[in-house]
């Protein structure tokens, strides 16, 4: 029996846009392996310090890449992280940047306990399309797609679209 080659998918966007909700559900529907980079960093202690201003650990990007390298080569992985330009371009077959309107994002982040500069900077990041621009610079334009992530209907539509894309990718590449 031959092992099917499966795509690698990057879900990225400002914190609070719905990457984790989408990623976990996508993994259930496709059988792809879901990796939340924040959780992975926590489990494997992939940090290089602590940011006092934002009150959070500083990710050691090189160690994250080393930790994921073998898994990514095998294919079939969904990566969820708010940054994207440090991952090797060769890893991903498609990149989805989730976008949320500012009121939704503000409320989601506030309910997570974000305040002050951290809250403002993340909302500004979304306003200025920072993550989308980062993705466009780091990956080929044709693999980077923006998806709205405001409502449960958006979530369902995004899931259906990505599942369909994934099935087509597997037909085309096996």
What is the topology?
Blueprint: E1 9-12, H1 19-30, E2 33-36, H2 37-44, E3 47-51, E4 56-59, H3 61-74, E5 77-80, E6 94-99, H4 102-111, H5 116-127, H6 130-138, E7 144-148, H7 152-173
Parallel strand pairs: 1-5, 1-6, 2-5, 6-7
Antiparallel strand pairs: 3-4
Helix pairs in contact: 1-7, 4-5
What does this structure look like?
It contains 7 helices and 7 strands. The chain has 174 residues and is of the alpha/beta class. The protein has one domain (19-169): Rossmann fold. The strands form 2 sheets. The chain has a 5-stranded parallel β-sheet with strand order 2-5-1-6-7, sandwiched between helices. Helix 1 packs across helix 7 (152-173) and helix 4 runs antiparallel to helix 5 (116-127). The radius of gyration is 16 Å and the shape is globular.
- Main β-sheet description: 5 strands, parallel
Number of helices: 7
Number of domains: 1
Structural class: alpha/beta
User: Rg from C-alpha positions?
Assistant: 16 Å
Tell me the span between the first and last alpha carbons.
13 Å
> CATH H-level name... which superfamily?
P-loop containing nucleotide triphosphate hydrolases
The portion of residues assigned to helices is 40-55%
- If you average the pLDDT, what whole number results? 95
Strand order in the sheet with the most strands: 2-5-1-6-7
Beta-strand percentage?
A: 15-25%
The CATH architecture designation is 3-Layer(aba) Sandwich
Q: Which CATH first-tier class would you pick?
A: Alpha Beta
Uncertain segments: none
| CATH third-tier fold name | Rossmann fold
String of helices and strands: EHEHEEHEEHHHEH
Binding site for ATP: 16, 18-21, 112
Protein name: Adenylate kinase isoenzyme 6
Subcellular location: Cytoplasm; Nucleus, Nucleoplasm; Nucleus, Cajal body
Region (LID): 111-121
């Amino acid at each position: 029996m031959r092992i099917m080659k499966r795509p690698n998918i990057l879900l990225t966007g400002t914190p609070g846009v719905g990457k984790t909700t989408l990623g976990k559900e996508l993994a259930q529907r496709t059988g792809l392996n879901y990796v939340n980079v924040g959780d992975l960093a926590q489990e494997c202690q992939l940090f290089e310090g602590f940011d006092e201003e934002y009150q959070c650990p500083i990710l050691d990007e090189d160690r994250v890449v080393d930790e994921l390298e073998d898994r990514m080569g095998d294919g079939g992985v969904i990566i969820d992280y708010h940054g994207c330009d440090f991952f090797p371009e060769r890893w991903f077959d498609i990149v989805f940047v989730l976008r949320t309107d500012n009121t939704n994002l503000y409320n989601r982040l506030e309910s997570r306990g974000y305040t002050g500069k951290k809250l403002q900077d993340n909302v500004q990041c979304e306003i200025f399309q920072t993550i989308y621009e980062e993705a466009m610079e780091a990956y080929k334009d044709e693999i980077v797609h923006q998806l709205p992530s405001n409502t449960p209907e958006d979530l369902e539509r995004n899931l259906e679209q990505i599942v369909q894309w994934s099935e087509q990718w597997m037909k085309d590449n096996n």
